[in-house]
Specification:
The chain is mainly beta. It is built from 1 helix and 7 strands.
């Protein structure tokens, strides 16, 4: 038995590649009876569209804190953006005249010197024993000067030094919260 030379092996590989390409581009009828030339844009063997899972939202806040927070404490939950921002001047307060619970603070980008284009800060409010009372959300969207009428953001502008925010509770609580946990599920910067 004789072994193939490199030249012969290379020629066989090239011939196999040509045959593979030629058979994939043939005008042979498809299994469903249609001429393959009529459906050149259809992917071969495609029966149904690919279903991708829906994007996950931010995780729900803990129903009970593992260790209850001190009165007035505002914690920051680690998340996908907490390494890119610095949250300062965090304060648990209540809004006047409604009396709704709120967390106020300042967010600055630390990863670079770019402006904030979109931001979402969520607060989970807890009682003295660490039980969840409710939540609130602050949303910021930089629309630009050319935005039409009601789409234009009239609130504070987020510059390179950050943005002040207030996360108001979504409703009134049976008792005043004693602590809060902040998360940053959305951050888009230049």
């Amino acid at each position: 038995m004789r072994h193939l030379t490199r030249r012969t092996a290379g020629a066989l590989a090239a011939a196999a590649a040509v045959l593979a390409l030629a058979s994939g581009c043939s005008g042979a009828p498809r299994a469903d009876g249609a001429d393959s030339a009529d459906s050149a844009g259809d992917p071969a063997g495609s029966v149904a569209p690919v279903a991708l899972p829906a994007p996950r939202g931010a995780p729900e806040p803990a129903a009970v804190l593992a260790s209850p927070a001190a009165a007035g404490e505002v914690r920051v939950e680690e998340g996908p953006f907490t390494d890119r921002v610095k949250l300062t001047s965090l304060k648990l307060t209540s809004l006047k005249p409604t009396g709704k619970a709120a967390v106020a603070g300042h967010l600055a980008i630390t990863s670079d010197v770019s402006d904030v284009l979109a931001l979402e800060v969520r607060a989970a409010y807890y009682d003295a024993s660490g039980h969840l009372l409710g939540t609130g959300t602050f949303q910021y969207q930089e629309e630009g000067e050319d935005a039409k009428g009601g789409d234009h953001h009239d609130g504070p502008r987020a510059a390179a030094d950050g943005i002040d925010f207030t996360v108001a509770a979504d409703g009134q609580f049976a008792q005043a919260p004693t602590s809060a946990v902040l998360s940053v599920p959305v951050l888009v910067n230049e």
